[in-house]
Design goal:
12 strands; five-stranded parallel beta sheet; binds iron/sulfur cluster; Cobalt-precorrin-4 Transmethylase, domain 1; 3 domains; Rossmann fold
Length: about 375
Amino acid sequence: MDGGDSPTGDEADGPTAPGDARAEEQIAEHGASSSPDVAGVADAAAGGARSGGSGKRVLLAAPRGYCAGVDRAVIAVEKALEHYGAPVYVRKEIVHNKHVVATLSERGAVFVDETDQVPEGATVIFSAHGVSPAVHESAAQRQLKTIDATCPLVTKVHKEAVRFAKDDYDILLVGHEGHEEVEGTAGEAPQHVQLVDGPESVDAVTVRDPEKVIWLSQTTLSVDETMQTVERLRERFPTLQDPPSDDICYATQNRQVAVKKIAPSCDLLVVVGSANSSNSVRLVEVGLQHGAAASYRVDHKGEMDESWLDGVSTVGVTSGASVPEILVTDLLAWLAERGYGDVEEVRTASEDLLFSLPRELRADLKATSAAKH
Ligand code: SF4
């Protein structure tokens, strides 16, 4: 992670907590500034057919790696450790990446599954994936000090769920069963939300009034598969309403667009990311669907298998939204040692979105800073 690109305590002074005016403005700006710009791409991948076994090269997808929500959540834990001292408790993995969790654990973060594992009165950070109101209540009962690192783009979906539940809609939440984000969003309106886990789940959906149904989604899904699910839903419920804005976030979409661009040229596509990272797993699927001859997900270069390179000329490389760039750099070095030192970055969008630190943390940092002056 490049600290220079990250929201600092100073930048975090503005009113940017989820749901406030500036946060929403940032989201809107982001939508305009980071939408894929395929026309402007240096067309490195458009050589079309894979090279036939002579020149070895790497096509490096961009954007890749850390998104704004992950960057914010990881920095929140780092700043909390600096400010409050270890241990700082974190409910669930702060982001779905083994390396990040291991690194923060070494620095004093203690990862727990539930708030009842946190000593009364201690500080607990909620992960980027978000939590349901029941988790907030449980933390309050235990008098925990909470720092909510839920990504503002997840919070946006929570707010949509609350709003449509208030208007008595049936909400069809497209997402993966058991994923923490889905549990958090569904927990906002459990009486109104029904999970739809892919097109094959559509037939089992039942609603009270087919005229009053809306779909929302998890932020890290495959765009194409989600639209297939929505089409099936719309066949059953023709007046199905769309979300007010895209729920699949900019980072998920941008990483998929970049993979679609390089996949047709790849004999092998390597996605760096952890097994429980939804957006990383989706990148493997998207790569295979769009022409990569083979694709594997690895947590780090140590999981690479030499045999994957047999007969391979072009290796595509990308990483999920929770993956620090150092893991990609290490993989590129590993590939270079095997003759794949020619690396060409293929960029399909630029990203400049930053989120301010969680409100509770900003307030404490500011108070300490003021006391010193
Ligand atoms: S993947 Fe998207 S929703 Fe998830 S933390 Fe990153 S920006 Fe937020």
